[in-house]
Amino acid sequence: xxxxxxxxxxxxxxxxxxxxxxxxxxxxxxxxxxxxxxxxxxxxxxxxxxxxxxxxxxxxxxxxxxxxxxxxxxxxxxxxxxxxxxxxxxxxxxxxxxxxxxxxxxxxxxxxxxxxxxxxxxxxxxxxxxxxxxxxxxxxxxxxxxxxxxxxxxxxxxxxxxxxxxxxxxxxxxxxxxxxxxxxxxxxxxxxxxxxxxxxxxxxxxxxxxxxxxxxxxxxxxxxxxxxxxxxxxxxxxxxxxxxxxxxxxxxxxxxxxxxxxxxxxxxxxxxxxxxxxxxxxxxxxxxxxxxxxxxxxxxxxxxxxxxxxxxxxxxxxxxxxxxxxxxxxxxxxxxxxxxxxxxxxxxxxxxxxxxxxxxxxxxxxxxxxxxxxxxxxxxxxxxxxxxxxxxxxxxxxxxxxxxxxxxxxxxxxxxxxxxxxxxxxxxx
Length: 429
Ligand code: UGA
What we know:
Layout: E1 2-6, H1 10-21, E2 25-29, H2 33-40, H3 51-62, E3 65-68, E4 79-82, H4 97-110, E5 117-121, H5 129-142, E6 150-154, H6 164-169, E7 174-178, H7 181-191, E8 198-201, H8 203-234, H9 238-246, H10 267-280, H11 286-310, E9 317-321, H12 337-346, E10 350-354, H13 359-363, E11 371-372, H14 376-380, E12 385-388, E13 405-408, H15 415-421, E14 423-426
Parallel strand pairs: 1-2, 1-4, 2-3, 4-5, 5-6, 7-8, 9-10, 9-12, 10-11, 12-13, 13-14
Antiparallel strand pairs: 6-7
Helix pairs in contact: 1-3, 4-5, 8-10, 8-11, 10-11, 11-12
């Protein structure tokens, strides 16, 4: 199929490469010319293991992936997938300005198209958005009726950063929310060879499936962090408890790693947006509010442990290992490390940070007096305390921390081995 992908961010780019690798002809459309030029040279605007090699191959060798800032190129395609960002407003609700902008532009171009075209919402949008905003906007700007000349479907993505292409190509499930059956059938056509269960439903339910998935994952993490906080007071290792409960097939083993909490561009933002939307509809979502409150408290906890160990943090040398919100990405959006570093700096600590990939992103948001270490031994040399906030493999060598005070926010180290070599503390174990 000939597919246009709107938005060359993380989701758009991975989606484009994913469909190109399935043999489709893909055009990425983004208004940011710098990103377009990078992609044309086979360079990825986001860092993700293996992504750039694939990109280069499709752009340069196979020739089935191109990038442009020209929306008119939609006319050469049968389907447009909207993958633009939906950031948060200050009240937690989602900001739909990028979505509105792209839908208006698509609508204008589609006013000139004679064949049927399907518009697919892949960005995460709060339930009701397609029905109450996207469809009226598309009809207004195209002058056509949605469900007749233009089809609409919602096909949420469930990729995980760090293994984006892998999770794109092997999804656990495919959700097709369709306004008209023809649109649903076209999404089915490009999805059925993924070999995943397919749920066909209406557009609003499909939008909700995405939020319910991320809200559930966030709840699992806050649940195990709460267990960890209780376990710590009772002298119990929550990781053993997690293993014990994981064999119950109704619970499962995934997303039960207690630690400094969840970050990233999705879980915190989506839970906040769902809270804002449900309040707007007259429901107070107490569980989701607690999920966020527990998460925010975990970051503060790590600073409290440092204070308990070191006393006043004024002029204490502290090394923070790991800034990305999880390993194998350079993404620092909502990463717990950022508020932790800010809190430590406010308390007068002298901070050195290290991250294998996220340093250049972190430089833009961290206070100026933070030092950046190039290598792990150099970053921890001479420090009074080491905090591990992202479980990169290179931090997992207990031998690095001989004689140090270590506060492990991610259970990166083996507690038994670590205790033999250093003054080792877990955030909730
Ligand atoms: C998340 C979802 O997992 C994906 O299914 C979804 O497609 C994606 O959001 C999205 O909406 O686009 P992602 O943000 O890439 O994916 O990251 P996760 O792997 O979910 O990790 C989120 C955070 O939770 C990280 O900070 C991680 O360290 C933390 N986490 C994860 C824990 O603290 N404990 C765990 O057991 C698992």
